[in-house]
Amino acid sequence: MRNRLTLSHKRAITGLLFISPWLIGFLSFYVRSIFQTINFSLSEVSALDTGGFTTTFTGLENFRYAFTQDPEFNQIMTNTMVDMLVDVPLIIFFSLFIALLLNGKFRGRTLMRAIFFLPVIMNAGAINDALQLAQQNVLGGVSAVASEISASAEGFNLTILLDTFESIGFPDFLLEYIVDAVSRIFTIVRASGVQIVIFIAALQSIPYALYEVAKIEGATTYESFWKITLPMVSPLILTNVVYTIVDSFIQSEAVDKAQEVAFTSFNYGASSAMSLISAVLVCTVLAIVSYILSKRTFYYN
Question: Which pTM value belongs to this model?
């Protein structure tokens, strides 16, 4: 039977064995939590003095509360989805750009890689609070310096620069996107550590013979990037997009809102409904993005 297995079957078995620890944990713990969340979202949950809880079926009442009665949920979900659509392309582009730089040969390359991955290691607890405080102090200092520079620049205003771009036909939506990207640069850098490492691994797995052949054929560095580098790393682009969307959602205000409703207002039913709504929206975005990117993903055999 072993000799009858084709190469594709052997690879499939290897893949199943590789994900088996996650699959066992998912089926043992996560699936049960999903069904319990669905049960809570369709019920009124009451805590007992002796411990535990009781549920009373209320249908879609918790979902109606989330959409029509809660004053913040709709706005928070809208802001979360907009921020996700803005941040994800910026993080992917920035991660790939930095990975291309860090993949080159120069002195201090290991140190630079560690610096870009450092926010991932330090993104927890008191260290994360200290980083946020440092960010506020730095932004405050930059704002003060910027105001002094503007005051001494004989009337120079950023609005003039933006108006100049608009006058030469620069699209307004693209200009607003760039300005928004600059304002989010700290968040983008902090959220790009894992993606940079994944892209570096993808770049190092590209056979150097492909670049040698392209160079012999007279291809420029620009052409080599679009014809070799980008297609070869495209499977990891899809991986990084999925990871970035999930990571962005985990750190969003929507999750904080659900936790606040559950552990501050003790409305576990409404909190479960908000969590399900958020999860469905994110899964929908993941499905759409994965379908679009998978059509343009190149797999090298």
Answer: 0.75
